[in-house]
Amino acid sequence: MKNEYYNSEDLKKFTNITDWNKELGDKFFNYYESVFAEGKLSSREKSLIALAVSHVVHCPYCIHAYTQDGLEKGIEKEEMMEAVHVGAAIKSGAVLVHGVQMMNRYNKLSM
Amino acid sequence: MYPKKSKTMDVSKQLEILKNGVFSNGKLPLFKDKLKEVNIPDIKKGQLKILQLNIGYMCNQTCSHCHVDAGPSRKEMMSMEVLSMCLELMIKNRIETVDITGGAPEMHPNFRWFVQNIRAKTKVDEIIVRSNLTIILANKKFFDLPEFFSDNRIHIISSLPFYNKEKTDNQRGKGVFDKSISALKKLNKVGYGKANSNLKLDLVYNPSGAFLPPDQSLLEIKFKEKLYTDFKIEFNNLFTITNLPISRFLDYLIASDNYEEYMETLVSRFNPNATKELMCKNTISVSWEGYIYDCDFNQMLDLKINSKTNTVYNCKIEGLVDKKVEVSQHCYGCTAGAGSSCQGTIA
To answer: What is the DSSP string of B107-167?
Structure first.
């Protein structure tokens, strides 16, 4: 059976989501375009943030798109990897900070 | 690094690839059909401003993206007869800029004679030499090139794919970055690239892979900052140039299984505004044999200019105005994103 999950060709069809709900689809893409425009943050900084978040949310389409976007913005591979580590640090920190809850609960129940 | 002995596919095979596959199975439109789709008329030549001369394919480098397939083993070079005919063209016609390229044009035995004669006998305003930088350090006979350039008021345009060693050496060969930095320092020393000097030194960035170049003005800021901080090097402008899918870069795209995706990127980023300032409109490109083409890329694909008088022996410059430019799918490279030309972005 043909693999129906995470097909790289599907990324090119992303804008097709407007076919089944034009109003919401258009709103999303307009919003998306505005978010990534030059602002207080440069489009270069936003690209690195997007790359880090792409890894944290485990989105292969986003990793594909924002690795290429980074190359097209002159971002170096060392900068990309640092961004991925920022994402990884936050993700692992988010796991570990729950350890405090575990410790609180442990201490409350223990003599 | 590209192998010393060239294995680049021949021109007819390149044109076949650019015409078939994704462009014949309905997946992507032909360039001429894309123009029609967005109501852009055929690309036509305007008034000639730039005479680009490829005076030979010999080069001391063998860069992996080179669209000329240049290298130390290439023997093709413009004869004295063709050089003299080019001078005649410049004397008889109003030409603002002469853009001398190769190969490494400085390796041509009559390079200096040619430049001095352009200055002495013609009214050309600007002479550009596309120098690969490392030639300045290649042999003692080239050591005085910075002074020669300066004496003849040459505008230098040089490739430096990135401001670090790894990317530059990967694309242009081991040791090229360090030599390029030394050469740039020598050019700065005679006044090139300095803010208060009229000796212009521009750099060219082209992507080190199957992706489009960054924003030209933002990258220029970064290049200036890095080259000055790390090496105290100054230059005037940075030109970002898109890699066109021909010659060695086409080989690379196919060998790395990036060809279809790269062409999809170029087509999906087609920018109608970039068609307004295409360099093929104001440039002609002359081959070492004296044939005339709309641009250097067409020259490499042997797509001669659309005229019966297509050599330096019989060319009538005024007669070229309004002639249709020869196009194929490689032209998507000049119209993607911010567009691309030998003078950088165009849209």
So the answer is: GSTTHHHHHHHHHHH---SEEEEE--STHHHHSGGGTTHHHHHHHTTEEEEEE---SSHHH
CB–CB contact A72 B164 (8 Å)? no
B329 in a structural domain: yes
Provide the whole-model pTM. Answer: 0.91
Is residue B347 situated within a structural domain?
no
Q: How confident is the model at residue B312 (pLDDT cuts 50, 70, 90)?
A: very high
Q: Which residues of A touch B264 (CB under 8 A)?
A: 12
B32-47 tens-digit pLDDT: 999 999 999 999 999 9
Contact A25, A17 (CB under 8 A): yes
Task: For residue B5, tell me if it sits in a domain.
Answer: no
User: Which DSSP category does B191 fall into?
Assistant: T
Distance CA B208, CA B258 (A): 13
Domain count, chain B: 1
Range of the domain at B321: 11-335
pLDDT tens readout for residues A53-74: 999 999 999 999 999 999 999 9
B315: amino acid identity, one letter:
C
**Domains defined along chain A, listed by start:** 12-41 (no CATH), 42-111 (1.20.1290.10)
Cβ-nearest to B211 among A42, A72, A76 = A72
Query: Shortest CB distance from B222 goes to which of A43, A68, A74?
Result: A74
- Mean pLDDT to the nearest integer, A87-95: 98
Among A11, A36, A38, A71, the strongest candidate for a mutation testing the B interface, having the largest count of B CBs within 10 A, is A71
Cβ within 8 Å, pair B218-A12: no
More confident residue, B98 or A38: B98
Question: Which SS3 state, helix, strand or coil, does residue B207 take?
Answer: coil
pLDDT digits (tens, 9 = 90+) for B108-142: 999 999 999 999 999 999 999 999 999 999 999 99
Cβ neighbours of B209 in A, within 8 Å = 71
ipTM over 0.85: no
A71 touches chain B (CB under 8 A): yes
Specify the CATH number for the domain of residue B259.
3.20.20
pLDDT for the residue B2:
39
Q: Is B212 among the domain residues?
A: yes
**How long is chain A?**
111
